[in-house]
Write a structure and sequence with these properties.
about 160 residues; mainly alpha; 3 helical TM bundles of succinate and fumarate reductases; two-stranded antiparallel sheet; 4 helices; 2 strands; about 60% helix; about 0% strand; transmembrane; membrane; heme; Succinate dehydrogenase hydrophobic membrane anchor subunit
Length: about 160
C-alpha cells in the first residue's frame, strides 16, 4: 500500500506548511491592532444584535406596525434624544463593524500592496462619508421646515 499524496496548503512552498516568501507580509506592530479589531467585532456584534432587534421591535411590532412608518413617525421618534442616540449608535457601530469586516477581507484576498492600499482608501472614504452624512441627518433633521419664510406645519409640528 502506498501513502495518500499530501495536499499542500495554499501559498506554501513545501509540505512543511511554511508560507512562501512572496506571500509573507510584515506583521510589525499589527498584532495588537488585529487582536483589538477581532475583539471589537465580537463586542460590536453583540451590541448590534440588541440595537437592531430593539429597532425592529419598536418600528414593526409596537403600535400599528409597519403601516405606521412614515415621515411623521420618524419625525416623532427623532424628536426624542434617546432615539437619536439609539439610531446614531446603530449607524456608527454597523458602519465600523462592516468596515472592519471588509478590511479583513481585503487583507486576506488582495495580494498586491498597491491594490490593498487603494481598496482600503475607497472603503475608508465611503465609510466616513456615510457616517458623517448619517450623523448630520440624525441631528439636523427638522420635520417642520421654514421654506421661503413660510413654516410648513403638519399635525406633528408645534403650533406656529
Amino acid at each position: 500500500m502506498s501513502a495518500a499524496p499530501q495536499i499542500r496548503a495554499p501559498r506554501t512552498t513545501s509540505a512543511t506548511g511554511r508560507i512562501a516568501p512572496e506571500y509573507r507580509r510584515s506583521t510589525g506592530s499589527r498584532g495588537q491592532f488585529e487582536m483589538l479589531a477581532w475583539l471589537f467585532m465580537r463586542l460590536s456584534g453583540i451590541v448590534l444584535v440588541v440595537l437592531i432587534f430593539g429597532h425592529l421591535f419598536v418600528n414593526l411590532l409596537v403600535g400599528e406596525g409597519v403601516h405606521a412608518i412614515d415621515f411623521g413617525f420618524v419625525a416623532g421618534k427623532w424628536a426624542d434624544p434617546f432615539w437619536q442616540f439609539w439610531d446614531l449608535a446603530m449607524l456608527w457601530l454597523a458602519m465600523l463593524h462592516g468596515t472592519n469586516g471588509v478590511r479583513t477581507i481585503i487583507n486576506d484576498y488582495a495580494e498586491r500592496d498597491a491594490t490593498r492600499f487603494w481598496l482600503k482608501v475607497v472603503l475608508y472614504a465611503a465609510s466616513a462619508l456615510i457616517v458623517i452624512l448619517g450623523t448630520l441627518v440624525i441631528f439636523t433633521f427638522d420635520p417642520c421646515p421654514v421654506i421661503d419664510g413660510v413654516r410648513h406645519a403638519a399635525d406633528y409640528c408645534p403650533a406656529v
